Amino acid sequence: MKNQEPEKWRDTIDPYSLPLKKVKIEEVLGYPHAANQVFCVKGVQEGTEGYYYLKYAHHADANLKNETEILRQLHFPCTPEVVEYDAEEYRYEVTRQIDGRRLSVILEEAGLESGLDYMYEYGQALARLHCTVSSFPEAPHRRFHDIPELSHFEKIGMEDAYEWLTVNQPAQIHTCFVHGDFHYANLLWKDGHISGILDFELAGMGNREFDIAWALILRPGQKFMRTEKELREFIAGYMDVCSCDPALVRYYMVLIYTRFLKLGDEKYERFVREWIRGCCLCGQNERL
Predict the structure, then answer these.
(1) What is the pTM of this model?
(2) Count of helices and strands (H, E) across the chain
């Protein structure tokens, strides 16, 4: 079954021009929103018709090599099967399509603005992924891991947040296998359960609580995961599988939000400012 995907929304390469050896593209069915160029295609492999995702490295920070190598050694349910890839330059990879839809679409169709019923399993899934043991490489470092310069906080009028983040820097980082980009757009759901976990370009051994915080951040335009009840349900699901430090999760959420503040409209910026102040600057440290 093919998943519904957006129509073409930006200029792309011609996917038929790529030197694929195992899959012959018959039809491009959609163009999923992603930083890289992603094509949902119908193709033929060894005489059998099927549905695939073709990902092409579109930007300088693309890391298809890391994703391909992680997926080839990651034996975890609901993760993509790599069918073929560019073994020389890692410009592209082809994975078998996983049936399912994103939570944003499911909730919108149901007219819901809360994902509470999904949060427990959401948290459990990340915890189980964090428990994966193998000889994984170190996860790529990102600017989001670092406290921005003071000038950034002066520009957004939140110098108090800079002081709070600096004073309360974690003394220890809890390392485990992390996904690196575990948010709703990289999860597929079917029949009320997670059916697919996508996009492992940033995966590897990394900061456990930061990975949790990244999953809990409200993105611009996102209608769910904005309430404390949803966040706590996620954490409850996570801690049903393994432990984490909610105070550290809260710290990293503040850190990430200081970079996300200006990414949305005025309503989103107001939400982020209130969350930061309510979470740490006003002493309400019981969140999460």
Answers:
(1) 0.94
(2) 9, 9
